[in-house]
Amino acid sequence: MPLEIVTIPCLSDNYAFLAHDAESGKTALVDAPEAGPILKALETRGWRLSHILLTHHHWDHVDGLGAILAEHPAQVVGAAADAERLPRLDMQVSEGDTVRVGGEAGRVIDVSGHTVGHIAFHFPETGVVFTADSLMALGCGRLFEGSAPQMWASLQKLAALPRDTVVCSGHEYTENNGKFAITVDPDNSALQARIKDVAAMRGHGEATVPSSLGQELDTNPFLRADDPGVQRAVGMEGADPVDVFAEIRARKDRF
Ligand code: ZN
Ligand code: FE
Predict the structure, then answer these.
(1) What pLDDT digit, counting tens, does each position of 66-77 carry?
(2) Architecture, CATH, for domain 4-254
(3) Which pLDDT tens digit goes with each residue over 50-66?
């Protein structure tokens, strides 16, 4: 049976997620931006946390940890590479390791770039990947610590997952991301349609996260650095996709 996924808005534009296995009653929290809304979501459903999966060390993904652990003494899982920077770590993981939530094993993917040591968690049976600030809806995280080649390689790992994979990313940045995306992929009709959909959803106060990997492959410029239309729009036809990605990321930083 697939995990039940709950999206929890936190702070001003962050998302945390619950992944619940009904059969075993195990529940994993992915990231801990703040305790209040997460504790409420658990209480409403009568769920107890068994795991807290941390994607990276930034404060807006870990600051709620202490207050959540005070009520839910769960096992904290995070990157071995970030052991010194995460507030607490009970299980250190690296690329290829698995984390079992009840009946389903999640696989750890190293998606360094935004930070070095940023990890994603892929649950293949449910068909969901928790990407936080690596692959985002119509965007990707800023390169605070890693390099463009590193982030491009990380994104290629995510791009290789099944198209119908649900992408649970860390922020509600989609509308602004769309405004930039159209500048480097102006003739993409799927992108034009998605921008309209996103505007309508935001108009109704709806979350645009999660998205699907198929949507991202078709419309997210950071996955499309090898696309002829994108390459033409940035004046880099035939260039190495890594260089095109670096150019798009640099343009977004200035946007
Ligand atoms: Zn971050
Ligand atoms: Fe963040």
Answers:
(1) 999 999 999 999
(2) 4-Layer Sandwich (3.60)
(3) 999 999 999 999 999 99
